[in-house]
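User: Please predict the structure of the protein below. I'd like the answer in structure-token form so I can feed it into my own downstream comparison script.

Assistant: Understood. Taking the following sequence of 169 residues as input:
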Amino acid sequence: GVHISRSLARQMRRGGYEVSLNRDFAGVVDACAARPETWINGEIRGQYIALNDLGHAHSLEVWAADSLIGGVYGVAIGAAFFGESMFSHATGGSKLALVHLVDHLRRCGFQLFDTQFITDHLASLGAVEISRASYRSRLAAALQTPAHIAQYPLDTSPQSVLQRSTQTS
């Protein structure tokens, strides 16, 4: 349940940024690891890059003036995407990455986005905690459903993402 705040919607309408998929996977992992305390060591970095090379791990990057300002990466299995980490080097960078990634995953038929745990940051974007039973049920269904992150090209238009995110059925 992604929620786009008014300020994030304004930032999206203003533009001035570009998004890409898997353009700089290693750059996103490195930016996520560039913190005083991190679980992403050299071995883990190498394993995620190997998963990316095999087509199982993916990143969504946010760029401004040819600089990487935000991103998120994770692993896709069936119609489940397991978000591993995200970063921001500019105001809203990780929020933009997450909103664009969720939109793309929906378009490609993904059913579950596992953020592992809820932070205030994720909650502000609409993440919700679900029961273990509900998670297991949703996960089982998602693992049995085929989906591929490259099924459709990434829609790089902030206006299109905003329109789809605010539509109600």
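That's the full token string. The longest helix spans residues 93-107.
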